[in-house]
Design goal:
Blueprint: E1 9-18, E2 21-30, E3 36-37, H1 40-56, E4 62-63, E5 66-68, H2 69-79, H3 87-101, H4 105-115, H5 118-124, E6 128-130, E7 133-134, H6 137-150, H7 154-170, H8 174-193
Antiparallel strand pairs: 1-2, 2-3, 4-7, 5-6
């Protein structure tokens, strides 16, 4: 494959399949390589399409991660620290917290060091059941993007993020408690905004 500078364009269409639906909008297309050139206008149309899709078909914005009884018990206990928060709200906030932590290399490294533990193994063990978690368009895009980047299905992205944050929550050593204090502050902010 050769690099193309996309200098010569023609009118065409940008298409993107997402959540089993197809977005289509007028866009410039490279005459040489056929690439659809997404500009600010096309991205705005896509965002508008996604918002309308969310209004009409909310079920498409729901992910159903599988969690063990141990995770569910942990979520119930955690909910006591965040009054009025449901399990699905906590999972949603933990998912975004973990995705944001990916941008903070020190926090991510610290969180990852805790998840390699007996606690993490305990959280994974046992019979699993799904927990429906709804996301807004921006959230679903972030989860799908992370999944594409890592080669992991969206439900697994949510599961892994939740397990890692719960492992920090359950950490009893000094390092774990220090990380949890930082994570809890951010989780509180996300839950308030929800």
């Amino acid at each position: 494959m050769t690099d193309c500078d996309h200098k010569a364009t023609k009118d065409g269409f940008a298409k993107r399949k997402f959540l089993g639906e197809t977005f289509r909008a007028k866009a410039s297309v490279c005459k040489s390589c056929g690439a659809e050139l997404w500009d600010h206008d096309v991205q705005g149309k896509f965002n508008g399409w996604l918002t309308k899709l969310h209004s009409r078909k909310r079920g498409k914005f729901q992910i159903q991660p599988l969690f063990s009884a141990n995770v569910r018990a942990c979520l119930k206990k955690m909910a006591l620290e965040f009054p009025g928060s449901k399990d699905s709200s906590i999972v949603r906030a933990m998912t975004f917290l973990y995705l944001e932590a990916g941008q903070d290399r020190v926090l991510l490294r610290d969180m990852e060091s805790i998840f390699i533990s007996d606690t993490f193994i305990m959280l994974r063990s046992g019979k699993k059941a799904s927990l429906p978690v709804g996301f807004n368009p921006m959230g679903i895009l972030a989860i799908h993007g992370w999944g594409e980047l890592t080669g992991v299905p969206p439900a697994k992205v949510v599961e892994e993020a939740t397990l890692r944050v719960l492992a920090v929550y359950l950490a009893v050593d000094e390092k774990g408690r220090k990380i949890w204090a930082e994570v809890k502050e951010e989780l509180t902010r996300l839950l308030r905004a929800a």
